[in-house]
Amino acid sequence: MPLGCATMSRCSFKSALQDSQHKTKVTILKSTNRAQTSHTTMGSEGTAKINNTIQRKPRFLCLHGFRTSAAILKKQIFDKWPSQVVEKLDFVFIDAPSPCQGKSEVEGIFDPPYYEWYQFNKDLKEYQNFDKCLAYIEECMIKHGPFDGLLGFSQGAMISGALPGLQDKLMMVIDDYMMYWQGVGLTNVPKIKYLIIIGGAKLQNKPLADKAYSSAITCPSIHFLGEQDYLKKYGMELLESFVHPVVIHHPRGHSIPRFDEKGLESMISFIEKVQTEISK
C-alpha cells in the first residue's frame, strides 16, 4: 500500500443533508472550478452548548488519504467516531486537487471518484505538484475559513503534520533586487493552531523535511498510532518533531480507528482544551 490512503471533495454551493446517525447537519458545496469537479463537505452547525453557554465549535479543515476523497473520510469518521466527539467539532472536508492517477486501494470498498494530494516516486523521496497542493489548500482555507486547525488521515496527515513548520519557516526571496523573507507555505492565512493526525508520517522529501521539521512544532496536537500500521515507524518519527503531543494508540492498521475508553477520554480532553482556548 502506498504512503497515504484515505477520503471527499472541493470547492459552487449545493444542499444541507441530515446525518441521522449523529444528528449533525452537513452541507455539501460543489464547484466546477478548474478542470476537476469537486466538492467540500462542511458541518453547518458551528456552535455547541457547553456548561450551559453557547460556544463556537473548533473548526477543522479535513484532508483525506491518498487516492480517496472527502466523502470517504467523512463516512469513515462519522461511522466510527461517537457523537460525543463529532458533535463537538465543526468539520470541513475537501477533495485533493489532483484526480487519482492510478489504482485506488479503496476501489470496491468506497465509490469513486478518488483524488490525491501530490505524487511521489517509488522510494517516496521525490514529490511532484507539492507546491500546487499547498496553494490549493491555502485557497480553500481562504474561501471556507477561518479554521482553528487541520485534521488529516494518511497522506492528508503527512501534509497536516508538516504545514505548521512550513508555515513558520522563512526563506529569503530576491525579486527585482529586493530581498525579503516569507513563509514556505500558507502565508496568506492565519497560523495553524491545532492538529489531529491519524496514521501520519514525516515527509520523506529531504528539502521539504528540512524546512518542515527544523524547529520543534509547538501547536497542540493529537496523534493516532496503529500497532499494525505500516507507517507506524514514520509516525513515531513525526512525534519527535512535536512538543507535548497527545498520543492515542490503537491495535488496528492503517485506518480510522474506533475509540476505546482511554482513547475517548484523551480525545474529549483534547477537544475541551481546544474549546477553552478558542473561547478566551
Automatic annotation (TrEMBL):
SUPFAM superfamilies cross-referenced by the UniProt entry: alpha/beta-Hydrolases
InterPro entries referenced in this protein's UniProt entry, alphabetically: AB_hydrolase_fold (IPR029058), FSH-like_dom (IPR005645)
Domain Serine hydrolase, chain residue ranges per copy: 56-260
Pfam families: FSH1 (PF03959)
Entry-linked PANTHER family: OVARIAN CANCER GENE-2 PROTEIN-RELATED, SERINE HYDROLASE FSH DOMAIN-CONTAINING PROTEIN
Record's protein name: Serine hydrolase domain-containing protein
